[in-house]
Write a structure and sequence with these properties.
Structural class: alpha/beta
Shape: globular
Distance between the termini: 67 Å
Number of strands: 9
Number of domains: 2
Order of helices and strands: HHHHHEHEHEHEHEEEHEEH
Strand content: 5-15%
Radius of gyration: 22 Å
Oligomer: single chain
């Protein structure tokens, strides 16, 4: 049967064709998300009857294997590491890749099971002047901003904060895979509330929480496409200065803190550095970048090298 040539019939046909295309694309995306999550689910399930520490090591071993033998992961890792350590030997880089995978597998497991992780107080020790500064701000009802990165186990920082009778919310970037998103968000919420997604709504909630005297933890080592070019590990990287802007605007301490894996990777030394002096947002953010860079150079396998941290830099102006 021929379609009539009227404009309404034509629009209906086009829209119907587009809707079929969108439906197909959505279905394909859903299948891919299921497939990608299935691999992680399988690894988690394989160790489900074991102890917490055994399961953590098991997922770490799995991730170490993936980083060693999965070509896309290997090439992405090598590209990033070569920018920072151009003279690193191939064998040394392979060892770093494998060990980073082990750390990140354990980190992911601990986040997925954060409620259980948070109460294992015997694993945490802490030091540094930043914790006293945090307690002082909390005692007078002032908010505080904890800045960290994908280094060691960042949830250990919030665990220690909770051990000292306080609670820190967190800012996170929602995952496109709804299966990962559900599990990751649930884990992060167990570490402290509120959990605020990046974006306008989350920003409003963040400001309200800080003005009400709350503590928030932010990971500042991800590429921010609208950020400022600030050196990180010796290379310019697009960096958000929002944390420093909030610290300056509301006169809040901005405290670098790191959950460093120690011993066999199953214990944590949480270091709260001194609050970054208030100057301007770029200088303060650069001070944090320098702080994290020093940690990474001292122990590179504890940082997650897969963030594409230096992508897109050439399109942005240099910081002042």
């Amino acid at each position: 049967m021929e379609r009539s040539g009227g404009p309404y019939d034509f629009d209906w046909y086009c829209n119907k064709t587009q809707s079929y295309g969108a439906m197909y694309s959505t279905t394909l995306t859903s299948v891919l998300h299921h497939a990608r999550y299935f691999a992680l689910w399988s690894a988690l399930t394989a160790y489900r009857w074991r102890t917490f520490d055994y399961r953590s090591r098991g997922l770490g071993t799995t991730f170490g294997f993936v980083m060693s033998w999965f070509p896309p992961a290997r090439s992405r890792f090598d590209r990033e590491v070569k920018q920072v350590f151009p003279n690193m030997m191939r064998g040394e880089r392979a060892k770093l890749r494998r060990n980073m995978g082990r750390h990140m597998g354990r980190t992911l497991f601990e986040i997925y099971h954060d409620a259980e992780f948070q109460i294992q107080h015997h694993k945490f020790r802490n030091s540094g002047p930043g914790l006293a500064a945090l307690k002082e701000a909390n005692s007078v009802g002032k908010g505080a901003i904890i800045v960290s990165g994908h280094f060691g186990q960042w949830e250990a920082v919030r665990a220690v904060i909770k051990m000292h009778g306080m609670e820190s919310g967190a800012v996170y970037r929602p995952h496109k895979n709804r299966h990962y998103e559900r599990r990751i968000r649930s884990g992060i919420e167990a570490g402290g509330k509120p959990i605020l997604a990046t974006g306008r709504v989350g920003t409003r909630g963040l400001v309200r929480h800080l003005r009400d005297g709350g503590i928030i933890s932010i990971l500042l080592d991800e590429k921010y496409s609208e950020g400022v070019r600030i050196p990180f590990l010796g290379l310019d990287a697009l960096t958000s200065v929002a944390a420093a802007q909030l610290a300056l605007k509301y006169e809040l301490p901005m405290i670098p803190a790191y959950g460093i894996r120690i011993e066999d990777g199953n214990a944590f030394h949480v270091v709260f550095e001194a609050p970054i002096p208030h100057t301007d947002c770029v200088t303060m953010t650069r001070a944090f970048n320098d702080s994290l860079s020093a940690r990474i150079k001292a122990d590179p396998e504890q940082w997650y090298w897969m963030l594409r941290r230096w992508d897109g830099v050439s399109k942005q102006p240099l910081s002042a």
